[in-house]
Amino acid sequence: MDKGLLRARERLSSARSLVVLTGAGVSAESGVPTFRGPEGLWRNFRPEELATPQAFRRDPKLVWEWYDWRRRIIAPLKPNPGHLAISELEKRVPEFLLVTQNVDGLHRLAGNAKLVELHGNIWLARCVAEGTVAENRELATIPPKCGCGALLRPHIVWFGESLDEDDLKTAVEAARNCEVMIVAGTSSVVQPAASLAGLAKESGAFVVEVNTDETPITGFVDASIRGRSGEILPMLVGGAR
Ligand code: OAD
Prior knowledge:
Layout: H1 3-14, E1 17-22, H2 25-28, H3 41-44, H4 47-50, H5 53-58, H6 60-74, H7 81-92, E2 95-100, H8 106-110, E3 115-117, E4 120-127, E5 133-135, E6 152-156, H9 165-177, E7 180-184, H10 196-202, E8 206-211, E9 223-226, H11 229-237
Parallel strand pairs: 1-2, 1-7, 2-3, 7-8, 8-9
Antiparallel strand pairs: 4-5, 4-6
The structure holds 2'-O-acetyl adenosine-5-diphosphoribose (OAD).
Residues 23-25, 28-29, 34-37, 40, 101, 103, 119, 156-157, 185-187, 190, 210-213, 215, 228-229 line the site of 2'-O-acetyl adenosine-5-diphosphoribose (OAD).
């Protein structure tokens, strides 16, 4: 077995606090498209036309059509062994937080409850006038409207928008205080999520990366394991308490 994997298993098996940070790669084996890379969404779509507040003001119908297309892809998909390994870790490690950039809801489906969805959730919609957030699985019209008559928007953090302050604070505090951090399936280029691994490392945590490719954090983490999260994460968890 890979040396990094062995060391990571060992650290994980004695850890009393753990943060898992995930990105689109963790959902790739379930069939959710990633954003970057050869098959990534941002190869064929322009974020400034679909994932900014300006784009929504200009053409809410187009933006919702894109989200509706993505929802139809995601709706039938199931958590994969990577998601399930992470939900197992929540049961085993006393202080646990999952910080995900994924908006697909698959971590919740896998059973994780101690989680922060830093970039929102594709199954939630928010009233642009009242700011209220509610589950939204069916679109009666595109674009959908709130009972108050105003437009609903996807409850997603778009480019140029700030993350929810409380969510970010929770994530940063957990990163600063964990013994081990696992960073899985993220290109580590979108801030502020990308800086959480550095924070954890500075604070003395053992940081493990699981990714099919190298990323900007590969050079400073304690173990960087090359491979699919659906295969590597279950192997890592096999060694946890
Ligand atoms: P990216 O698409 O940028 O990166 C996916 C990462 O997963 C890459 O580093 C791949 O090498 C890796 N990867 C792919 N398949 C994998 C697998 N089976 N196992 C392990 N790793 C794999 O996705 P994110 O880093 O999540 O924002 O992107 C961050 C944010 O940028 C997203 O949350 C999204 C996007 O714009 C919003 O939607 C607000």
